Amino acid sequence: MIGAIRVCGRWVCRQLLDRLSRRAQGPDPPPRRKLIQQFCQTTGWRDAKGRLSLSSASVALRKLEKQGQVQLPPMAGRTRGPTRRGLPDDGQPLPPLPKLPAPDRAIDGLRLRLIQDEHDPAHPIWNRLIVREHPLGRRPLVGTQLRYLVECDAGIVGALGFGPPAFHLECRDQWIGWTPKARERNRGQLIGLSRFLIRPGLSRPNLASHCYGLALGQVASDWQQRYGVKPVLVETYVDRLSHQGRSLAASNWRRLGESKGRGRDDPQRQHSQSPKDVWVYELDPQARRHLQACPAEIVLLRQACVTAFRRPR
Asked: 94-130, pLDDT tens digit by residue?
């Protein structure tokens, strides 16, 4: 396709990129963010809820800049704070451990509490629990995410966090049957269980399995309501040095294999982490079929390329 270039799963007209560059390099150019916003509006680059996909388009345009396909005003410099990036901890006391009933009795009111946003009173409680009681500590969640507290009538039992999946994962991609194009187009239907915490000091048979069941029965609809996309598959990782994944197996998760020990925060693959067992759970019985689908791609019409970013007279 001579008149267009493919980036981030989309075809973009080269004439549009040329006009965008001339607009950016001309007299009195608009700010970079404004140009990206206009680019999204022209190309119809929106998320499933109809919002402009400014973050995805910004990533795509940075890739095109590195290839010399487009020129934009420089990015605004970031102000570096004195503290390292990570989950905050407000220093407040942790909620007391609930007293659970005997194993032969049900836990009254065991439920999930979805945290709505950073202004939700449960948000700092979630941070405290993860920072002080989860092995990953302050390591931040990135991108789209859902956070839950696991509660019962006696108090807070634990916490869960869902976020984006790994970009590339050999055993997972082979099991799904992903081509590079299908992975690029359908990654949004896959999410990751990135945090799972049963609070230290709480010991009860099958408690983890019950928590998995609550989360997996609710997360697809919650994710769709917040982001407009209904996930069909969840992935998670288990460090075999400390866990065997028995609760996952009891909850009908499927072990696919082992990761290569490359972390999300190491894009150059320079540092190795300990390999993890890779587990998935199918939220939809046709999960693999949905993830393999490759609908026809849309190219911006030539007339739209010609008129886009035309300076008003």
From this structure: 999 999 999 989 999 999 999 999 999 999 999 999 9
* 293 within some domain: no
Domain of residue 237: give its range. 111-282
Cβ-contact 127, 159 below 8 angstroms: no
The CATH number for 176's domain is 3.40.630.30
Calculate the CA 45 to chain-centre distance: 19
The whole-angstrom separation of Cα 206 and Cα 229 is 31
What are the tokens at 154? 């006696």
278 and 138 in a common domain: yes
Residue 59 maps to a domain: yes
DSSP 189-210: GEEEEEEEEEPTT---TTHHHH
Q: Say if pTM beats, i.e. exceeds, 0.90.
A: no
Q: Are strands 190-198 and 233-238 parallel, antiparallel or unpaired?
A: parallel
Residue 127, sorted as left (phi over 0), alpha (psi -120 to 50) or beta, turns out to be alpha
The number of folded domains in the chain is 2
From residue 115, how far is each of 60, 160, 195 by CA, in Å?
A: 31, 10, 14
Measured between alpha carbons, how far is residue 178 from residues 6, 182, 193 in Å?
A: 18, 6, 20
Residues 242 and 130 in one domain: yes
Q: Of 1-15, 58-72, 83-97, 293-307, where does mean pLDDT reach its minimum?
A: 293-307
Mark whether 141 and 244 lie in a shared domain.
yes
